[in-house]
Amino acid sequence: xxxxxxxxMFDIDVNIEQRSEPYYKQYYHCLIWWIPEGxxxxxxxxxxxxxxxxxxNTYLQNWRSSGTRTVISDRxxxxxxxxxxxxxxxKNPFKKVVCNNTMxxxxxxxxxxxxxxxxxxxxxxxxxxxxxxxxxxxxxxNNPQHKFRTYFRERYLDESQRELIKKYFFTRADQxxxxxGFKMLLNGQRMWIPSxxxxxxxxxxDALFINLACPQLVRKTLPIQARN
Length: 228
Prior knowledge:
This protein is an alpha+beta fold. Helix content is 28%, strand content 27%. It has 6 helices and 12 strands. A hairpin with a 2-residue loop joins strand 3 (94-99) and strand 4 (102-107).
């Protein structure tokens, strides 16, 4: 596979990631990018950005009596709209995943995002390129500690769903190893599960019981294989 140097693309080295398949079965590049208040742009819609910021700021101004979080500034809101216009103008297919203020752009045409990741006040964290050279339909790790990895569906949780999921995994802490992002959800207040969250475990039937306890949570389960 051709490796794009930083002089060819962005002011950052390309990290080659060995995989069993392209990202989401179709994309060969992943741009990880940070923007202030990026979680206000889960939907690429100007109306959605304004509505989400309105309700966030209203809550912080009228209901939250303590804490360090401040309302979203006019400049941050303007920046989100500027970037939204740039993303809406991209014609080639891509997938966007948002976690807090970080976005993952999966694409086959990373040059489409040159103006996005260079936008003032934002930062390109990493540029990864998939090298599809590993066995299909499995997870390959250097020193695996478990036999299976179960990925979750991308979805929004209401309060009762989140508490149900937290209770299920807290009471089985010795049975599952959560991914870093999913661990933060279990220990925090996040309400959104991206599709890259997972747990590692030893029994293939664990995924069935997860789905019974937390309906429609499981996306897929793959065996884990040691790297040769």
